[in-house]
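Re: the request from the purification team.
They wanted to know what the chain is likely to look like in 3D before they choose a buffer screen. I agreed to run a prediction and write the result into the notebook, where they can find it.
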Amino acid sequence: MEITSVAFIAQVGITKDRAGRLTLDCDDSVKSHVQTIHSGALFTLAEAASGEALRVRFSALADQVVPVIRDAEITYRQPATSAVTAFPAISDDAIRTFEQRFARKGRATIEVEVEVTDQRGVVVCSGRFKWLVWEQSTTVGVSGGSAGPLPSLGPLRIASDIARDAPDDAA
């Protein structure tokens, strides 16, 4: 799925630049009470960029897995007063560990680091996003949902509950 087609992402105003990086303009729709880009909009940009980095890096798995955020940490460094761009990175060690555990268990966690910079290259925030990814074949389908089937932890649980309650050894 194209990340910018997700309704919330589009509503916030996140777009892709020519290089495929996620960006956000500093217009009135995303400004806070102090006339800078709202912290929630910056978080959304960074989180979306982390997910997009996973989708691009593991494109062969895109239709076979369900990824959900398990944990996130963000640090706001400078006020964002101009358009911003997100720069995600996944370490080689994180990729290697994820691939090994995913091949063995059908699920694994992986961390993506993201820096968001303004037009001058100043880092306005940085974050760490830990994703829980599992194979759809190891899950039970839930009718009516478009995000993919949920794990067999109960049909009424939502993705954030699943991510929170998954054992730490899922990694």
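For the purification team: The beta strands are 15-16, 22-24, 65-76, 84-89, 107-118, 123-135.
Please add any questions underneath this entry.
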